[in-house]
Amino acid sequence: MNNALLHSFQTLKQVYADGAFSSIALNKTLNLCKNQDKALITKIVYGVLDNDIKLEYIISRFVRKMPKNDVLLYMKIGTYCLCELSMPVYAVVNNVAELSKLSADIHIVGFVNATLKQIAARLSEVEYPQDETERISVEYSYPMWALKKLIKDYGMDAAKQIATFKLPNYTTVRVCNDFDVAENCKQCGVQAQTTPFDDAYYIDGKTDGFTGRWTVQSLSSMAVARICAADACGSFLDCCAAPGGKAVYVKQLRPNLQVAACDIHEHRVQLIDSYAKRMGVEIATYRRDMTQPEQQWLGAFDTVLCDVPCSGFGVLDTRPDIKWFRTSLDISNLMKLQYAILDNCSNYVKTGGRLVYSTCTVFDNENGQNIRKFLKEHPYFTYGSINLPQFSQANGKAEYQFLPYKDGVQGFYVAVLVRTE
Ligand SMILES: C[S@@+](CC[C@H](N)C(=O)[O-])C[C@H]1O[C@@H](n2cnc3c(N)ncnc32)[C@H](O)[C@@H]1O
């Protein structure tokens, strides 16, 4: 049996059937499998999740009754390999049919074999829906409910761009002063490209062999930390801080700042601790539910960051499974949680201090709508100003929605508010 297909199947099964996070399930698999299989497994796992709606649509054109569970997964893997990877048809059909023997049912093996042959032979004849919104949803595997939200928020043209644009497949690394970029790239045989930030690079290959102090961190995460650090003095509270990307970077940018970082989950607080240790900084960490008041922190911080849990539709390039498991109901539940955190943590801002709100999503419900409601209900807060000279389109504004197709970075939202009394 083909090992790469077997590992891909087992990993995807954990995501589809057990609700595992794709990145965590994939990392576990990659730690166990052979080096030569890693690239293909990664491609298949992320590719199947990213193309889920399209793959189901294609399969549905060739079957009388939609298969379920493992059988559907064999078919998705096979169809993905046929559509998106330049693998010979006979190899895909034979290997996936072989894989389907895991089901120990001769009828299933026959069904998978015959259907994949059909798909390979008549793929170009598949007709996509006439309706433009439905067609985009299927072709780009963007859930219909989410696409409708984008159209409402941005209009059809921008919604199309948001749903279809793909960022280049680079790893973004943030490096510390003592890190030798040229030497590390030479040693690992990779290329580094500069980014708008002088301490971050796009890397076009594997970074496992890098030595020195560095970390994988997206430009969007760095941007929010830089906005927090830009005008910071005294004390900084990151209310939803795990795994610590922003809190640790703020401390590195402003070593004299007192940094406190909270998260609701103990195991995630430990992630902040170990990340801070690895990056060589000290920050105070707390396990707290930040929807609940904490007397000792009332009016205590110069800058408070609410980097709230969100739907994640701005980071689909690294988390394609989000498209598959999120529902529109999640958005309304998330909005309630986001608002409760913002509302409670606003009490921790000193008079004259800043409240920074950020998400890694593109829906107005979770972004501007929360801020507009907050300002209406808290008239002693007003809009402040984003200080981020590297992104002139956002610099000086009170809030900004970054979009991959326009700004070349992941989709994230940031708003800066100031407490006036
Ligand atoms: C978007 S992530 C934060 C990312 C982090 N700021 C960083 O840069 O690495 C949101 C975090 O909020 C935490 N969270 C969810 N509900 C919370 C609550 N009620 N109070 C505190 N943290 C919460 C989650 O555990 C998650 O770690």
Ligand types? S-adenosylmethionine
Question: What is the third-level CATH name, the topology of the largest domain?
Answer: Rossmann fold
Described by strand count, sense and barrel closure, the largest sheet is: 8 strands, mixed
Work out the helicity level.
40-55%
Number of helical regions: 18
What CATH architecture of the largest domain do you see? 3-Layer(aba) Sandwich
Count of discrete structural domains: 4
Question: Could you tell me how far the N terminus lies from the C terminus, measured between alpha carbons in angstroms?
Answer: 68 Å
Number of separate strands: 12
Q: Which percent range describes the beta-strand content?
A: 5-15%
Class based on secondary structure composition and strand pairing: alpha/beta
Quaternary structure annotation = single chain
Q: What is the CATH class of the largest domain?
A: Alpha Beta
Order of helices and strands: HHHHHHHHHHEHEEEHEHEHEEHHEHEEHE
User: What is the name of the CATH superfamily of the largest domain?
Assistant: Vaccinia Virus protein VP39
The shape is: globular
Q: If you average the pLDDT, what whole number results? A: 95
- Stretches with pLDDT under 50, minimum 5 residues: none
Rg of Cα set: 23 Å
